[in-house]
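Hi,

I'm pasting everything inline rather than attaching a file, because the server keeps stripping attachments. The sequence lines come first, and each chain or strand is labelled.
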Amino acid sequence: MKRVVAILGLLAACAEPPPPHGIVLVSIDTLRADHTSPYGAPMAATPTLSRLAAEGTLFERTFSQSNETLFSHASLFTSQLPSDLGRVDYDLTIPDGTPTVASALSDAGWTTGGIVAGGHLARVFGLDDGFQTYVEGQRWGTFQETEPMAARWLDDVAAGDDPFFLFLHSYDCHAPYTKPHVFGRLSTPGYDGFMLDRVHDSITYEKIYNGALYPDLPLSQLVNDRGQRILTPEVHAQLAQHAADPASRRLTLSKDDIAFLKGLYASAALYADLWLQVLLDDLAERNLLDTTTIVVVSDHGEGLLDHGYFNHRDSLHDSATQVPFIVWRPGASEKGVRQREVTRLLDVSPTILGLASIDIPETMQGVDLSTCLDGGSCNTPGTAYSEAVLEMTSVTDGVMRMTVTGAPAHTHAMTTRIQKPAPAFATVWDAGGAPGTEQAMSLLELDPVVLGRLQAGALQARRAGGAR
Amino acid sequence: MTRGMWVWMSVCLGVGCGPRLEHPEVATRILAETDQDGDDAISPEEYATLALPRQGFAPLDTNHDRRLDAAELEKAFLTSSPTDFQDEGRRAVHRKYGHPFGGPVDEGVPRGKGKGKGKGKDSRPSRGKGPPPGAPR
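And the predicted assembly:
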C-alpha cells in the first residue's frame, strides 16, 4: 500500500511543472474581458489569448480595483487598494518602501524588468519601485515599440542563469483605438461616415454621450503636481449637462457610426493580440518559452456606450472593471481550466509570488491563486471592490453590484456611506448578464442578505488596508 | 491543404523561403483577417475599404504588382508606428476642426529632426538595428 501511495505521490509531483525560470506579466491596457475570444467574443477577435486560455487557466470573473491606469497598476503591483496608497487622484504614487511584486522578486534574486508605454506608467508616478530595469516607451504607446524593447531585454536575460520577471505593457486598446493600414476598418470595411476623419483624436471620444457627438463641448484641463495636463474629472458631468441643453449642437451617431467605433476597438484588441503572439515567438526563439509562465491581464475595461460614454473613467460597471486574467504554464496539467470564483487584480501579485515560491509580503491583501489553477477552490472573499477618482466606490459579487458616491474613496465618510447606504448616494445593479445590460434596482428592493454580503465585502477590503 | 498552408506557400513563392519573414504567423494572420476575396493578397480596392486613411497603398507595394502579399504586409506592419500614426491623425483633426482647448495646432516635429524620445523616426523600434533610445542594454 505504501508503495502505491508513493507512486501516486510521484505521479502527482510529475504532473506539476517545476518552478518557472521566468514569469512574464502582460498588461493590455483598456482591454475589457468580454471583447476577447476566450471570454465570449468570436474566435478571430483575439486568437492568441484563446490559445493561452485553452492551454492554461482562465479566471472568468476578475475585476480591477480601479477604472484608470495609474490607480489600477499601483494596486496590481502592491496588492493593495488604491486608497491604501493615498488619495485617489492623479498625484497618487506608491509610497517609498511599499513592497511590490517586483521588489519581492528582486529581493529573492530574480532579475526584474518593466517595459511600459509611458503615460500613467511613467517613472514619475513611482510605479518603477522594485524593478531593476524600467523603460518607458512613447507616451500612450504601443506593443509595437515596447515588445521589441522587451525582446532585447530578454536577450540579456537569456544569457544569464537568474530567474527573471518581465512586466510588459501597452496602450494599444486605449482611445483613439486607430491603427494604421488594414487594421483601420477591419470590422467595418467601407465605412465612409462623418466619424472617419475624427476618430484619430482621443478627445473626440470624450464628446460622445448617449449616441451623439457634441463637437462644441467646452473642455478644461488640470495640471497635476507632476506638470501633466489631464482632463478634469468633471468632464462627464459637463458632457451630460451640455447634452441636456437643447441649444447644444449635436451630431447623431447612426448604427454604422457606432459599429465603426466599436470596430476600431475590436481591431485594436486583435492588434494587441498579434503582438502577444510576437512576444511568445520571441520567448521561443530564445529557448525561454518552455520554462516561462505567462500571465495576461488588463488594468481596466472600456465603456463602449454601455452606459452612455466611450470611456472608462465615468463608471465602475463591469464594462470598466471586468478584465481578462489568464495564467499559462508550460508543462502544467491544467488545460482549459475556467475558474468561476470572483477574483481581483489584487490577487495577481500574490499569485505570481506563489508561482515563484516566494513569501508574500504581509501588506499584500490579495489571495495566492497559484493553488487553484487546476480549478479547485481559491478561497477568495467572493466579492471584488473598486475605487474611482470620481469620489466613487463599487463592490460586486459577480451578479449584483452596489455603487456608492459622494465622498473620496480614502475617507471615513465613504466608509460611513457603505455602512449606511441610502438611495441618495448608493445604487444597486443586477449585473448578472453581459456588461452593458445591467439593470438598476432600488436599494430597497435588494435582498438584505445580498446587500449585507456586498457591504461586508467592501468594508472587509477597506479594513484590510487599515482603518479609515 | 489548409488555407494557411496556401498562404505559406505564397509567401515562399513571393519572397523566397530565405531570408524568412521575421514573424510569418503575424503576416499570415493579418492576411487571413483582411483578405476579403480570398486571393491571399490585398488589392488597392480592398485596401481602400479597410485602411485609415484610405490613401497609402503605393508605398507599401514595394514590388509594384498592385497587390500586398504577406511579406509586404508584414513589412508595413513592423515599420509603421501606431503612435506616430495617431499623432499625425490627431493633428489632422485639429487642423480641420480646431484645437479642442482653443490653442494653436501642434504641428509636431518633422521626422528625423526631433531630439530625444518620441520625436522622430529614430525613436521608433527597428528590429535588428540596435535598441531605440531608452531601451535596456
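The longest helix of chain A spans residues 255-285.

If the labels don't parse on your end, tell me and I'll reformat.
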